[in-house]
Amino acid sequence: MSNSTRDVEGVEPVTDRVHDNSWSANLETPQYAVDPGLLVEHAIEAIERTTPGNHVNLVTHGDHGHPEQYLYGPLEAAFENRADVEYVERCGCGGHVTRVHVESR
């Protein structure tokens, strides 16, 4: 798992456990609106904490635009062929949902 070296005082992690099921990570709160780097970092951590054979829905803040522009490249670099990234939809609140399937090994 990645360990952040950034100063993110007061920022709660997107999750504090491994998920052995499909789940959603809320990356849409104000802290992510002002820090897209933190959003990417926590998205990677969410995927790392999803067991193979399951998926995580990454719900990202609309202020950054379509996640393909800033999120897909870092995810593909971090996970290569171990995760499948799929755009799901734009939320009514303006955010975006990206589903990441963690491949079984």
How would you explain this protein's 3D organization?
The protein is of the alpha+beta class and 105 residues long. The protein has a domain at 23-95. Helix content is 24%, strand content 25%. It has 3 helices and 4 strands; from the N terminus they run E-H-H-E-H-E-E. It is globular and about 35 Å long.
What does this entry show, briefly?
Helices cover 24% and strands 25% of the residues.
Structural class: alpha+beta
Query: What is the gyration radius calculated from CA atoms?
Result: 13 Å
The number of strands is 4
Number of helices: 3
Task: Write out the strand line-up for the largest beta sheet, numbering strands in chain order.
Answer: 1-2-4-3
- Global geometry: globular
In terms of DSSP E residues, the strand content is 15-25%
Topology as a string of helices (H) and strands (E)? EHHEHEE
Low-confidence parts lasting 5 or more residues at pLDDT below 50? 1-7
Major sheet details: 4 strands, mixed
Q: Kindly, what is the distance between the CA atoms of the first and last residues, rounded to a whole number of angstroms?
A: 17 Å
The helical percent reads 10-25%
Q: Output mean pLDDT.
A: 86
